[in-house]
């Protein structure tokens, strides 16, 4: 059982709304903070949609549990008000170092001294943000995955300054929230999942660019050879080809050739992956 009860989430976009809902679903009182009334109206719509999704997809979600979770979430656009009782603030504001630094500078001034801060940043190391928090020993990364109720890992990664007791408290909170806590011992860009996934997907892209084999053959080899449910091109379709393009275009010559292939064959034809019904594969409606 975690010592952390009251959860405040900063940013109520794709991930922030999911984190807020998951914490509330597991019994935590949650305050969800965003910039203004328009953002909070969008947050309310996201939370209502999540309640419907949990009711339909999560074991035990039907029978009122999802509505009760909604009732545990309070929305606020006043930062001091949002964090006044927080045991932990989980930050999910946009992936911009300037926005995050500004957010932590303001947050450090108004949050109670005991409050732990956790960033959900996918690409920034927590040590890049720690100096702006005013409390580096009570700051770390707690990284969730999209569709949190299915992909329920919480990658927990401190800096050299993070207090081990704070790290442990966040591990316990993750378990409390129905997550599988993944303890990361040293700072690592990409955490564990992307440290494994990005080179794997790149290798598949190279095989295609070099004309070694087609996506169907590469995927079948991976599935049959390892027992994994999906091959790399099936994963590309789920991630979305625009994201795949952006990551590959920033890589070396082979990766750039793959980016060009993705753009010409797929993105320029409006084929962006599962989201548009077609990418490397075609998906039924
Ligand atoms: P998003 O754009 O969907 O949501 C960002 C939210 O932050 C919006 O509601 C916006 O109004 C709000 N916001 C903007 N400026 C703010 C400020 N100064 N203070 C408070 N709120 C502010 O973004 P997202 O996809 O939810 O990503 C948020 C964080 O989560 C990023 O750090 C990202 O790396 C991380 N993340 C995203 C995913 C993903 O799949 N989308 C997965 C894991 C982690």
Task: Give a quick precis of the structure.
The protein is an alpha/beta fold.
Give the overall average pLDDT: 96
Unreliable runs: none
Amino-to-carboxy terminus distance:
43 Å
Question: How would you sum up the major sheet?
Answer: 8 strands, mixed
Structural class by sheet pairing and helices: alpha/beta
Rg result: 20 Å
Could you name the CATH topology of the largest domain?
Answer: Rossmann fold
Total domains: 2
In which order are the strands of the major sheet placed? 3-2-1-4-5-6-7-8
Number of strands: 8
CATH architecture assignment name of the largest domain: 3-Layer(aba) Sandwich
CATH superfamily of the largest domain: NAD(P)-binding Rossmann-like Domain
Count of helix runs: 12
Instruction: Specify the helix fraction band.
Output: 40-55%
The first-level CATH class name of the largest domain:
Alpha Beta
Tell me the strand percentage band.
5-15%
What string gives the helices and strands in order? EHEHHEHEHEHEEHEHHHHH
- The backbone outline, from C-alpha atoms, is globular
Write out the distinct hetero groups bound to the structure. Answer: nicotinamide-adenine-dinucleotide
């Amino acid at each position: 059982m975690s010592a952390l009860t009251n959860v405040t989430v900063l940013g109520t976009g794709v991930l922030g709304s999911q984190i807020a809902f998951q914490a509330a679903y597991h019994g935590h009182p949650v305050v969800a903070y965003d910039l203004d009334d328009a953002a909070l109206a969008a947050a309310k719509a996201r939370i209502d949609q999540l309640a419907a999704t949990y009711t339909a997809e999560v074991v035990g979600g039907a029978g009122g549990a999802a509505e009760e979770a909604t009732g545990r979430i309070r929305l606020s656009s006043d930062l001091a008000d949002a964090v006044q009782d927080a045991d932990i603030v989980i930050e999910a504001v946009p992936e911009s170092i300037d926005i995050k630094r500004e957010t932590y500078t303001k947050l450090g001034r108004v949050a109670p001294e005991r409050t732990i801060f956790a960033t959900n940043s996918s690409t920034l190391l927590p040590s890049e943000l720690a100096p702006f928090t005013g409390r580096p020993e009570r700051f770390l990364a707690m990284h969730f995955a999209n569709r949190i109720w299915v992909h329920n890992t919480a990658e927990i990664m401190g800096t050299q300054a993070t207090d081990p007791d704070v790290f442990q408290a966040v591990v316990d909170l993750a378990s409390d929230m129905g997550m599988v806590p993944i303890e990361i011992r040293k700072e690592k860009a990409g955490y564990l999942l992307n440290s494994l996934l990005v080179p794997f997907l790149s290798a598949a892209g190279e095989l295609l660019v070099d004309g070694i084999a087609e996506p169907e053959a590469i995927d079948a080899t991976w599935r049959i050879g390892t027992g994994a449910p999906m091959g790399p091109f099936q994963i590309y379709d789920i991630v979305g080809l625009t994201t795949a393009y952006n990551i590959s275009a920033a890589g070396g010559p082979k990766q750039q050739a793959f980016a060009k292939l993705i753009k010409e064959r797929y993105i320029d034809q409006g084929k962006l992956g599962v989201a548009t019904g077609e990418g490397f594969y075609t998906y039924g409606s």
